[in-house]
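For practice. Supply one:
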Amino acid sequence: MELQRDVAVTGRFEGISLGKGIEQVKHTVNQLGVPSDIRIQYGGTYEEQQKSFHDLLTVLMVAIVLVFIVLLFEFGSFSAPVSILLSALLSTAGVFVALLVTGTTFNISSFMGVIMVVGIVAKNGILLLDADQKFRAEGSTPRQAMIMAGERRLRPIMMTALATVAGMIPLALALGAGSQMLQPLAIAVIGGILASMVLSLVVTPAVHYYMGGRH
């Protein structure tokens, strides 16, 4: 006859983030050599955070699908939505670089920043490819249209990105009451936007050109 008993151990972190605190707890528990027949489950705020991550991941996937459908109807080809979303997804690398440099953990707030970056980068791609289609309709070759579209949309894309970064700097520096909760979001958005300034002007037109824009 086996006896099953649940034992709850509670605690509260002070002066450390939830992610780093749970990481240290798991490291300590692993060193204890707990028998395999004992099941350890982390609940409380950590469990709620994991559920929130799952929900946000679903939101991100749905957002990508909806953006793809809208772009497909707008441009009438697969090359445009693929090139725009590829640039948007690659821009998220800037998010993780910014979080790594600043020593900020990836949490719910920074995840929301990733979703914001995808939307902003998609908007820049629409501006760029819309100009590309306009120049092609005027008789320019695909290569000339791509180059002229980059020149025409360079200033709007740069100004939009810099304005967004400037607006996020106070939050990134945690200036003001309650700004610490949104600090990871601001850092994530700044990193993603800075990366998108290059990717939107290079990856989007290049992928669009080689996937079918030459014809």
In short: The radius of gyration is 23 Å. The chain has six helices and no strands. The CA atoms of residues 45 and 86 lie 34 Å apart. The mean pLDDT is 78.
